[in-house]
Each structure stands twice: as C-alpha cells, then as structure tokens.
C-alpha cells in the first residue's frame, strides 16, 4: 500500500490553460489579492509552470451523478470554476444550458455542485505523461 495520502495524489488543474499537476504551493501571485471574477468563487490564482498563464488553480473531482452524463466518453474536460471532470460532450451541453437563477435570470451551472459557470464554462484537460 502506498504510504502517501489521497490529498497528496489529488490532481489539480490550472483552469486558464488546462494543464494538470499535483498540488503545490509555489507560483501563487503575491501582488495583492485579486477579486474573483463572475463564476470564479474564492479560488487560488497561480502561474502555470508550463505555459506561464495565470488563473484559478483547483482540484479535479470526478462527478459521481450518472444521470447528468450525456455519453460514456473519456473524462477529458473540466467545468470552470469547480473542477468537476467529465466528457467533452457533457461539459459543452451543460455550459450551453442556462438554468433558472433567482426569479429573473438564467445561467449555466455545474450539474454536480450547482456552481455558476465562468466564461467559458469548461476547459480541456492537458495531462503530462513521462518522457520516454
């Protein structure tokens, strides 16, 4: 059995670019606390070490409600800003489907946690494999 905890093995994603990494604390922006934009919530903003883009850095979560999946495709995309993972067809559908918000508005939300989606509402995940 592996001596490391599940938290140490949890994959995290930079939502701006889609690069997936393990959890780390370096690369955080120190020039003051940026106010979260619409749909971002209170996520940590970090700089991706691969492409240098700055944006939210959140853990990836596999959505566990089978009723919201549209297909059995590979989990290649994640919702922005929550990080729930599912297939491209599923994220595109839910990002384009506005649901009632309050009494006078409609907006797309994550089907797993009801978090309001950002713009765009999803990102393609880029996994880094070992170099042969």
UniProtKB/TrEMBL annotation:
<dbReference type="InterPro" id="IPR048335">
    <property type="entry name" value="Pellino_RING"/>
</dbReference>
<dbReference type="GO" id="GO:0008592">
    <property type="term" value="P:regulation of Toll signaling pathway"/>
</dbReference>
<feature type="domain" description="Pellino RING">
    <location>
        <begin position="6"/>
        <end position="132"/>
    </location>
</feature>
<dbReference type="InterPro" id="IPR006800">
    <property type="entry name" value="Pellino_fam"/>
</dbReference>
<dbReference type="GO" id="GO:0000209">
    <property type="term" value="P:protein polyubiquitination"/>
</dbReference>
<dbReference type="GO" id="GO:0061630">
    <property type="term" value="F:ubiquitin protein ligase activity"/>
</dbReference>
<dbReference type="Pfam" id="PF20723">
    <property type="entry name" value="Pellino_RING"/>
</dbReference>
<protein>
    <submittedName>
        <fullName>E3 ubiquitin-protein ligase pellino 1</fullName>
    </submittedName>
</protein>
């Amino acid at each position: 059995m592996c001596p490391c905890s599940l938290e140490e093995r949890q994959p995290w994603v930079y939502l701006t670019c889609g690069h997936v990494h393990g959890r780390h604390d370096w690369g955080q922006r120190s020039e003051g606390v940026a106010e979260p934009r619409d749909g971002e919530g209170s996520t940590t903003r970090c700089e991706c070490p691969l492409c240098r883009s700055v944006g939210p850095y959140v853990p990836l979560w596999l959505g566990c409600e089978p009723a919201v999946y549209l297909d059995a495709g590979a989990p290649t995309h994640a919702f922005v800003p929550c990080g729930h993972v599912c297939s491209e067809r599923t994220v595109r559908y839910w990002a384009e489907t506005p649901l009632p918000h309050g009494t006078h508005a409609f907006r797309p939300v994550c089907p797993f946690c009801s978090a309001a989606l950002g713009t765009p509402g999803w990102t393609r995940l880029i996994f880094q494999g070992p170099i042969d």
